[in-house]
Amino acid sequence: MANTKRNTVAIEWPTTGHFTIEDLQKKYPSMVNITLRFRVKKALDNKEISQVGRIKPAIGRPRLVFVKGPATKEVVEAVLKTGVLPLIDKKEQTASVTVTEFSSEKKGEKKVVKTAKTVPATPAVPVVV
Q: Using an 8 Å Cβ cutoff, are 67 and 20 in contact?
């Protein structure tokens, strides 16, 4: 028989300050990590919480930082002052540069082919003092 037990614990998002999924894991130790991640994704889609930045540890992937409710400019600035790094849009991370351009003619057909190389762009990171 399949295990039909469902975790129906309602998550209470922290109302003061910012939080990460690891903070939620400490608050709800009985909940499986992937369940927390699905709940966070669902809350992001429903606009219950907002993603405001990331924390880059010495080793490993960056941890995403969230706040409850919409992320206003004041909230984001307050979170960034605590040492949280700003989010970088994926569109800004790479830039397309034309490397070569050539044309070929074959029996009255003219074809122009452009090749592009995607290179990392240097993000404009504000200096937090």
A: no
Is there a contact between 118 and 96 (Cβ–Cβ < 8 Å)?
yes
Tokens for 103?
């044309």
Q: Where are the domains of the chain?
A: 21-87
- pLDDT, tens digit, 9 for 90 and up, residues 68-110: 988 888 888 888 888 888 877 555 555 444 455 556 666 666 6
| d(C-alpha 6, C-alpha 97), whole Å | 50
Q: Long-range contacts made by residues 7-16, C-beta under 8 angstroms, separation at least 24? A: 7/31, 7/32, 7/35, 11/36, 11/39, 11/43, 13/43, 13/48, 13/49, 13/66, 13/68, 14/68, 15/68
What type of residue is 45? D
Residues near 128 by Cβ (< 8 Å), separated by ≥ 6? 80, 81, 83
Q: Which residues contact 127 (CB under 8 A, 6 or more apart)?
A: none
